[in-house]
Design brief:
64% of the residues lie in helices and 9% in strands. It is mainly alpha-helical and 266 residues long.
C-alpha cells in the first residue's frame, strides 16, 4: 500500500488524516497522531507494508491513550487503579492500557505511594474524616495495604483526638435540643461514622459540654412535645408515659419531676 495524501484534522491540529491506497486499489482514510507521522517519517507517495501500518496503529492507540491519561492526571493526582478504570471506560484495549501505565509510572506521573501520602495529608487538613474512612477510601482507589499503612502513620492519635475534639466543640455551639446524655450518644455515633476508633471517641465525647440552662431548654422542648401527645390520658398514665419518653431522651428523673411539677402549675 502507498500514501496518497496527508491532510490536517481541522478539529484537532495534533492529528492528521492519512489517505492510502491498498494493493487491490481500495482506498482508506485513517486518523494518525502527528508524533507518529514524525517518528515513521510518513509522507505522500511513501510505500508501507501491512505489518508496518499495524505497528503504527498500535503506537497511535498508545499515544492517544497516553494523552487521555495525562489530561486526566492534570486535574489532580490519581492512583494507578483510577487511571486504569478511566482508560477502560474510554474503550482503550487492555494491552494498550498496560503499556501506558508502565510508561506513566516510569515517568512518575503515577506513584501510588506518593499519592497515598498526599491523599492522607489532604483529608487530614480539609475534612473531618477519621482514619478508618480514609483507609477505606484508599483501598477503594486500589492502594495496597502496606502502602496505606505507611501513609496513615502521619495521622497520629494526637491528631485524631484533636480533630475529634475540635469537631465536638463546634457541635456544642449549635442549637441541639438534646439532653447532655443524648448529645454524647449522638456525637459518639457520628464520630464512629466518620471513621474514628472507639478509644478516640470515648476520650473525645467527654468534651460534650454540660450546661444546666441548655439541658432545661432541651427538656422543655421535648417535654412539651410529649405533653401534647399524652395530655388526654388519666393523670397516672400521663405521668408514667411522660417519664418514660423523657427518660429515653436521656434526661434525669429529678429534672423530669421538675418539669411535671411545672406542668401541674400551668
Amino acid at each position: 500500500m502507498w500514501i496518497e495524501k496527508i491532510e490536517v484534522d481541522r478539529k484537532n491540529a495534533e492529528r492528521f488524516y492519512v489517505h492510502f491506497v491498498e494493493e487491490d486499489g481500495g482506498k482508506q482514510v485513517v486518523s494518525v497522531d502527528q508524533d507518529i507521522l514524525i517518528e515513521y517519517r510518513i509522507k505522500k507517495g511513501m510505500a508501507v507494508t501491512a505489518e508496518q501500518w499495524a505497528e503504527m496503529m498500535k503506537k497511535d492507540d498508545e499515544k492517544q491513550a497516553y494523552k487521555l491519561a495525562l489530561r486526566f492526571l492534570a486535574y489532580r493526582m490519581r492512583s494507578k487503579r483510577e487511571v486504569v478504570d478511566y482508560l477502560a471506560k474510554k474503550d482503550i484495549a487492555t494491552q494498550t492500557i498496560e503499556r501506558v501505565i508502565v510508561k506513566l509510572q516510569h515517568e512518575r506521573y503515577i506513584d501510588d505511594e506518593q499519592f497515598a501520602h498526599a491523599y492522607v495529608q489532604t483529608q487530614m487538613n480539609t475534612t473531618m474524616k477519621g482514619p478508618y474512612v480514609i483507609y477505606k477510601e484508599l483501598m477503594d482507589k486500589g492502594i495496597s495495604d502496606d502502602v496505606i499503612a505507611k501513609a496513615m502513620e502521619r495521622y497520629t492519635e494526637d491528631m485524631q483526638r484533636h480533630k475529634a475534639i475540635k469537631w465536638i466543640e463546634k457541635i456544642n455551639k449549635q442549637s441541639k435540643k438534646r439532653s447532655h446524655q443524648e448529645q454524647k450518644l449522638y456525637v459518639a455515633q457520628l464520630l464512629h461514622m466518620k471513621g474514628f476508633p472507639s478509644h478516640i471517641v470515648e476520650v473525645a465525647k467527654q468534651h460534650v459540654a454540660a450546661n444546666d440552662e441548655a439541658e432545661w431548654e432541651a427538656l422543655m422542648y421535648h417535654g412539651e412535645k410529649a405533653h401534647r401527645r399524652y395530655k388526654t390520658y388519666d393523670r397516672y398514665t400521663y405521668e408514667q408515659k411522660m417519664k418514660q419518653a423523657l427518660y429515653r431522651k436521656g434526661f434525669s428523673l429529678s429534672l423530669i419531676e421538675k418539669f411535671l411539677e411545672k406542668k401541674k402549675e400551668d
